[in-house]
Write a structure and sequence with these properties.
This protein is an alpha+beta fold. It has one domain. It contains 3 helices and 2 strands. Strand 1 and strand 2 form a beta hairpin. The protein is globular.
């Protein structure tokens, strides 16, 4: 599912309802955002049956560049813990 997003004057984007509904995202849902070379990847911090590493492994990276998935996974776990503490 591909959608086009636009950045508003405050630097914000709106995730289209089709995508929010498909991923069961609600107000207050936490997402991890990562820059991989010239790509931006967003992933819910928790989605039953999903594995964040599968997402990062599916993105092609320019030869010689590294993906710092450890940082993204640690951040996802941190955000999940914060959400559970609320």
């Amino acid at each position: 599912m591909l959608e086009t997003l636009y950045i508003n004057s405050r630097g914000q984007v709106t995730i289209p309802s089709k995508i929010r509904n498909a991923l069961h995202l609600k107000e207050g849902s936490a997402l991890v955002i990562a820059r991989l070379d010239k790509k931006i990847v967003m992933h819910p911090t928790y989605f039953p049956g999903d594995n964040i590493m599968d997402l990062y492994n599916s993105v092609k990276v320019t030869k010689g560049k590294s993906r710092n998935t450890e940082v993204a996974v640690k951040e996802a776990k941190r955000l999940k813990a914060l959400k559970g503490a609320k």
